[in-house]
């Protein structure tokens, strides 16, 4: 059965059900397994021990995982569409590494900086990373090819990771930085979510508004120009959205690669090449994926935690190699 023949409303409804199931499993499972009945009681204001664990620890943590997964998946989908590069991903093209370096510098130079300041530092770092990668990749005549873009991203990511490590060692803040770079959602608080969630939701919302223009860009830029689209303006807006989404994700949980690569390809195999469908499905699919990854990290070696970044990398690297081998054709 061809999944693309299923109406999008049904596909999206099934994806939303999967997201809710993933969230409920994340609430229930962990070092302390909690009944589903207590999950409901915690929502309506119960003050028992289990309800307090859920409200103050698991709820903010899993909402963070959902938001980060959605942000990275949508930003990856936008990058793939805008560059027509099947290997595009914020974690592979230097954006999250740049955001990580910005975060390290902010922690070192202004240790009392509030969360707004941390978020802005991540935005600036992601922007610098994006500009450097795209600048290097497009410096050669003929524009940038997908593989040249990936090579530039790998080199720039390595450089920014070295900058973050060097700053941490020199200013003796490596321990503080490692809490972010581990790529986990441990310790996420409601106050952090109140700052970061509106930014991510706004970024995803604007990207949905521009999904039709992104579809035209992904197919043929000349056609988009012929239809009256201001391609440069659209590209700048989309690049800003990518920086906002990737920077927000790093500010919340640290560096994560491959989420923005895997989810859009899986979604594209289900819904086709129209970004009016790809972006909302990527948001839901990315959120569900991160919830399941975080749940697996908390339960596979309980009561110890397996870093979610390591789990995602184990899944993402084979996926990346398949995309390289196939050139993206089997997923588009």
Structural class: mainly alpha
How far the N terminus sits from the C terminus, by CA atoms, comes to 17 Å
What is the CATH-assigned architecture? Orthogonal Bundle
- H-E string: HHHHHHHHHHHHHH
Number of separate helices: 14
Q: What share of the residues does DSSP label as strand, in percent? A: under 5%
The CATH homologous superfamily name equals: ABC transporter involved in vitamin B12 uptake, BtuC
- Specify the helix fraction band: over 70%
If you had to describe this structure to a student in words, what would you say it looks like?
By secondary structure, this protein is mainly alpha-helical. The protein has a single domain, classed as ABC transporter involved in vitamin B12 uptake, BtuC (Orthogonal Bundle). It is 75% helix and 0% strand. The protein is built from 14 helices and no strands. The chain has helices spanning 8-28, 36-43, 49-83, 95-109, 115-137, 146-170, 174-181, 190-209, 211-219, 221-226, 231-253, 259-271, 275-299, 308-326. Helix 2 crosses helix 3 and helix 4 runs antiparallel to helix 7. The radius of gyration is 20 Å and the shape is globular.
Task: Describe the protein's topology.
Elements: H1 8-28, H2 36-43, H3 49-83, H4 95-109, H5 115-137, H6 146-170, H7 174-181, H8 190-209, H9 211-219, H10 221-226, H11 231-253, H12 259-271, H13 275-299, H14 308-326
Helix pairs in contact: 1-13, 2-3, 3-8, 3-9, 3-11, 3-12, 3-13, 4-5, 4-6, 4-7, 4-11, 5-6, 5-11, 6-7, 8-11, 9-13, 12-13
Question: Main attributes?
Answer:
ABC transporter involved in vitamin B12 uptake, BtuC, globular, mainly alpha, 14 helices, 332 residues, single chain
